[in-house]
Amino acid sequence: MLKDKNILIFGGDEFLLDAMFPLLKASGAALTWINSSDIIRKSNYDGKSLIFEEIKNVDSYESILLNHVDSTEPFDGVIFCLSEGSLRPLSMTKHVVSSNLFEVNCGSFIELIRILQKRKKLNDGASIVAYSSISSLLGLKTKLAYAVSKTALNAAIINLAVELSPKKIRVNGILKGALTTDINYEHVKNMFSVGNDESGNSELGMSTPEELANLSIFLLSDLVKTMTGSLIKLDGGYSLN
């Protein structure tokens, strides 16, 4: 469904992307992955990659990311999956924590799209998919700063959809619940064990990276040329409880 389309993947961990890459490649897309060398080295990715060691330092984007972007052809699609997590009670949620999460989870998205648009690296009719979280809709213990940053990302998705619509560029978000690959991280195991997050116990079960990839491919494809500004839940029904 993405035959001859040039797709940029920005961020993400090796567990998620290892599961997604085969499906994205099978869809016919030409992939470019921007991430740190450490993440790319741990993965099984064998396509075009651009190393960006300071990928979570938004202040460096103007000077560093421009060089990466200028070495590529314009993109027909973007998957934004950079994310930073945090589990802290209110007493430990200092301003620096909230600011950092906002910068990574929302500010980096805005800056990435700004630079792509500034350098004319988004083709007219392109599709942008950003990975948000169902935490932006629910009240969960110890996830205040993270949830606020993802709620801001939701607002960025909707507002960019309006701003980019004259160029027929679509912007949509996927609100992820727990993924089966998340259990690779100790902090996620701890979160489930103390009962702060029961998204892994949703009626339809945990979502898989393959499901996320298939939904992303659908949104990036030309099957939905008039769908923009949407926030789609992929959480096994957890947020319905």
Could you explain how this protein is built, in words?
This protein is of the alpha/beta class and 241 residues long. It has helices at residues 14-26, 37-42, 61-69, 95-118, 144-164, 186-193, 209-220, and strands at 6-10, 30-35, 48-51, 75-80, 122-133, 170-176, 231-234. Strands 3-2-1-4-5-6-7 form a seven-stranded parallel sheet, sandwiched between helices. Helix 1 packs across helix 7 (209-220), helix 3 packs parallel to helix 4 and helix 4 (95-118) runs parallel beside helix 5. The longest helix is centred in the middle third of the chain and has 24 residues, at 95-118. The chain is globular. The N and C termini lie far apart (34 Å).
Key traits:
39% helix; alpha/beta; single chain; 241 residues; 7 strands; 7-stranded parallel sheet; globular; 18% strand
